[in-house]
Design goal:
It contains four helices and five strands. It has helices spanning about 10-25, 30-45, 55-60, 100-109; strands spanning about 5-10, 55, 65-70, 75-80, 85-95. The longest helix has 16 residues, at about 30-45. The termini are far apart.
Amino acid sequence: MKSAFTVEWAETARDDLSEIIDYIAADSAPNALAVLDRIQRRADGLATAPERGRVVPELRWNGITTYRELVVPPWRVIYRIHETRVLVVSVVDSRRQLEDLLLARFLRS
């Protein structure tokens, strides 16, 4: 089946994923590789069905409906769709408050 969309990763999302994998690899390299594979496979699936993810609830409450998410427990893969492109913008731990994570990211910039 041909993909209708191209899935791309923003630098911030690549950095998020790298931090997650490095953290897990400190305890178990095989587990880290399994998590990496699971997250990447789910994100790659957006190429054929990008609207399957829900609008990010915390952003919807603020009137922002551009960003969607896939939950790959315990992580949230946050992305946006633009024409034939899906851009993964972040991978965050669902056990943390999204607002706190975004605030910390903005303060680092």
